[in-house]
Amino acid sequence: MDGPGRAVLTLFGTRPEIIKLAPVIRALESTPGVRTRNVSSGQHVDLLAPFVELFDVRVDRRLDVMRPGQSLNQLAARIVNAVDELLAEERPDLVLVQGDTTTAMAGALAAFHRRIPVGHVEAGLRSGDPMSPWPEEVNRRMISSLAQHHFAATERNRDTLLREGVAASSVHVTGNPVVDALRWVLETTQPSEQVRDLLEASEGTRRVVLTTHRRESHGSLIRENLRVVRRFVEAHDDVAVFFPVHPNPEVRAAVDEALGGAHERIRLL
């Protein structure tokens, strides 16, 4: 990344990363003296593309790390190797990652090995349980140990980092850029025809939006949770549930089993 100014390489790979990084990338690209390179690992493909388009994010490189049936270790290894080669070529002044994904953790590790400073957006978030969310809780702890710049969403997140021994001078409370992303969407887009139809059909009910797909919930836990949701809707005539179903096969199988022939007030999207 030769040229005047400071070079920032922003790495993302999943839907939540691009949603939260889009406002940051927009701010970086409007900052004098900053040159940007936006890199997608490809950890999400179909899920990522609509949001890259929605937020009009320029993607300079795509690393194409996904392979059918690969393990988390295989994915992490592919990301470290691909990012390492990219860093040797690009030589940025800073690598920026967001959150707790395998892309963020592996990218931060690759940058650390190259002695390139790491900036971490959404730093300091903790559940306190290494197994939930899994593997994300450990990913974000690892990134905290690798990063030089910690961008915390809240004062509580900042305090968590300070208790863990992170230098106060390296922690910056920025707020959560997902709020900026939400505001941008509200200002620039309109509900789809499908959403407008759902709102009209559910007029007069208490509407609940449900998402569930966490890896640690796969199996019996997610199935029982969905059965509880169905029983709740059946017991409350004034409740309608809108459920955007994650494309993960484990999630879809659980939905088919627990909500097969779904209730008329449970809308699977």
Question: Would you identify the regions where 5 or more consecutive residues have pLDDT less than 50?
Answer: none
Biggest sheet strand line-up: 3-2-1-4-5-6-7
- Terminal CA distance reads 42 Å
Tell me the series of helices and strands, N- to C-terminal.
EHEHEHEHEHEHEHHEHEHE
Number of strands: 10
User: Over all CA atoms, what is the radius of gyration?
Assistant: 20 Å
Helix tally?
10
Shape: globular
How much helix, percentage-wise, in residues? Answer: 40-55%
Largest sheet: 7 strands, parallel
Mean of residue pLDDT values:
92
> What amount of the residues lies in strands?
15-25%
Class from helix and strand fractions: alpha/beta
Give a brief rundown of this model.
The protein contains 10 helices and 10 strands. It is of the alpha/beta class and 269 residues long.
Describe the structure.
By secondary structure, this protein is α/β, with parallel strands linked by helices. The protein is 45% helix and 17% strand. The chain is built from 10 helices and 10 strands. The strands form 2 sheets. The protein has a 7-stranded parallel beta sheet with strand order 3-2-1-4-5-6-7, with helices on both faces. Helix 5 links the parallel strand 5 and strand 6. Helix 1 crosses helix 7 and helix 3 crosses helix 4.
